[in-house]
Amino acid sequence: MSGEGTETAGPVLGWGSATARRPPSLRWVEPFVLPAVLLGAWVATTSVVRLFSPSQLPGPRLVLGTLGELVASGELQRHLAASVGRVALGFGTGALLGAALATLVGLSRRAERLLEPTLQALRAIPSLAWVPFLLLWLGIGELPKVVLVAIGAFFPVYVNAAAGIRGVDRRLVEVGRLHGLCGARLARRIVLPAASPALLTGLRLGLNQAWLFLVAAELIAASRGLGFLLLDGQNSTRADVMVVAIALLALLGKLTDQGLRGVERRLLGWSDGFRA
Amino acid sequence: MSRRLRLERVRKSYSAAQPLFAGLDLEVEAGAVVALLGASGCGKSTLVRLVAGLERVDAGVVRVGETRVEGPLRQVGLMFQEPRLLPWLDAAANVAFGLDEALQRTADGERRVQELLAAVGLGAAGALLPHQLSGGMAQRVALARALARAPEVLLLDEPFGAVDAITRTGLQHLLLEVAARARTTVLLVTHDVEEALRVAGRVLVLGGRPAQVVLDEAVPGAAPRPPDRTGLGEVRRRALAALAPDLDTVPAGFGV
Fold it and tell me: Is-contact A276 A265, C-beta < 8 A?
């Protein structure tokens, strides 16, 4: 590992001379090049060449029109609020539980023996396998969806945080012990800060998975939410509605991840390996 | 206040076949600066860790003053071979970590941190993070942290090995100055005979397996001594001779 902590770590090695010579003022444009090309291709294939029929891949004008209608009727806001609410609640609960159990398992050998094998087994269950049971046990209200999202967020947070805590430099723990720290104080002042990079990685992966599980939940049993909107679009052969739903999911996933990256940047400025 | 440091019939082994210590006796009188020499792998670091309370003896007693060491003691400071700074805290906060808990986050504590940073020549570097410090600077912060609690016994485990020669001399002087002022008992572990002869009032050589004190020699003259000081030739010769058998034997785990 040579300093690329995240998927978009700056140009650290290789390509050296070329990167160095390029004027830095244009660098911020580069992330937008590929989206612009795709947008261009979309416009070209739907409005200019008409490679696809509107029912297969609707053009930008149709999609924007649909978006406008959905907003005007207030329907879109309803779906958005439902999805965002489920992710916020599910991710919040799942991540909190994941971090708490990881701390417990990472710090106590007994807790590790008691919990770790079971949690690893539960982790092996594919997400969709939970759905029938959640519906059976929790009905078709909000609860099963939130629980499914929470399950999705839980495991990445748990696995990463536990690995991070287990991997904390023993020599730093010794520094803490030498200064009279043990138990909860040792955890708070040494173990958790040292494990925070892994915890934040877990949170980002957990958030990603929360959106994934949200769509799974909403595709199966929901009357609101972006997943439902997607399914509704499919059932009524409205590709324009499907495009709106997918674009919004992408946008929300990206925005929330960006938010967590901001937190990461603020909290992990100290880290030698972290350069985002 | 200063305290004597005593090891009485200390036994410690990681493998039953080759005990590290089998009844080791050693004493550092209160307020003395003693250097402990020995080839690598002879148990110097383990000895320090036993005194610091980071490891337990299998049998025997380690005492700091009259207190039996059974875990880390407030009065015992330790500086490791490497800085071991907490990477998420800046230099000043790392030094403050060494303060007594009651003093942390108080104006008095902050003043003390500033004094310590200034004493190690880093008065302007308090806001730097460990990864922004050079190796020598980091080790100086570590020394400031070890001194923060004004320990009565200060253990140093090859502390200046990675520091350049000029900084090293400066830190040795600082160490002696602080120790003299507070009458701190100092046990300096090193593999550098010259360093031992420059700063210590007494030199111990640890050797053999199980390890014993194979040489216990007073170093005449007030420390710090200039490196070219004459008259230490005989002490140096004896210290090197005591170290040499260690270098000839094959260390455990490297069986022929």
Answer: yes
